[in-house]
Amino acid sequence: MPTTSGTAHTTKETRAASAEDSGKGVPPPRRGAEGGRRKPEFTARRGFLIAAFMAPAALFVAVFTYYPMVAGSQMAFRNWKLTDLTDTSWVGLKNFRDVFADPAWGTVLGNTAIWVFGSIVPQLVIGFALALWLRRRFRFRGLYQALIFFPWAISGFLIGILFRWMFNSEFGVVNDLLQKAGLIDEPVAWLADPQTAMFAVVVANIWYGVTFFTIMILAALQSIPEELYEAAALDGAGKVRTLFRVTIPYIRVTLALTVLLRVIWIFNFPDLIFGMTGGGPNNETHIVTTWMIRITQQGDYGRASALGLIVVATLLVFAVFFLLATREKREVKP
Question: What is the pTM of this model?
Fold first, then answer.
């Protein structure tokens, strides 16, 4: 007869073999392509649930954004004036022809170009320089960041009122500082003179918009790996070469999108001008959007709507060409 120990040893081997054989038929748990859990399949029920959650937001945007946009657009092709609401007949492109035939159109168009491009370039340069400075580690850096970012939290109209007082010809701080520095002999009527009014509002807009570029560019600069700068230093690259060969190429997408957003923003930014000059003197500081608001205040909704469609079309064309011109060129590898 077999001994007790031999019987126990044989029983253990039999159980282990049985467990191994039983485990062979059990497939391992299925995992995703990256080794995680398998993603749930998209079903009609899940799609209906997602649509149900999105419906309130979509309805809100449709009612309060898209419907007013469409309703306002059709006014551009009608004789829509508050002085005579009994006649809202279809006039086709008449409102557009009236906009282009207005004697002030040339001045407004030129002011808009000065307003946009005269503001965007200094804002980009100064904002880039401040972002490079704030990227460095130094004492009280957080305090300097707060002081630089603070203007962005203030209303544009309030900034306009502030600069209107600063450029005041009688007791403005700008004339006072320039006289003490010996740059002018007598106070200058900055906002009353057609030759200096546009310059004053552009200066105010530059000061207000530098913060936006500083915030966006600083966020992009902080994402640049330090290894790139170390490699550039080992190659003997100086600060200027590192700037144009490492920093700018790495954040060029952020720069392009920031410039695009800022151009659109400045184009549609009448707050500061209304706070400083209200479009005067003699329409010399009116841009397209401030002029559109002034026409609306006069009750000519048809012509104002036509001008609004011109603004939308202009910005859309600019955005398309700008994105095409600044898109990244990828080499197609065989």
Answer: 0.76
